[in-house]
Amino acid sequence: MHGPQGAAQEAQNKRLQERMSAVTHKILVMSGKGGVGKTTVAVNLALAIAMKGYSVGIMDTDLHGPNIAKMLGVQGERLYTSAENTIEPFEVASPLPGGTPIKAVSLALSGNDDDEPIIWRGPIKISVIKQFLADVNWGTLDFLIIDSPPGTGDEPLIVVQTLPELSGCVIVTTPQEVAILDSRKSINFAKKTNSHVLGVIENMSGFTCPHCGKSIDIFGKGGGEKAAKEMQVPFLGSIPLETELMQAEDTGKLFMKEFPDSKSAMAIMKITDKVLEALHEKK
Question: Is the pLDDT of residue 1 over 90?
Answer without folding.
Answer: no
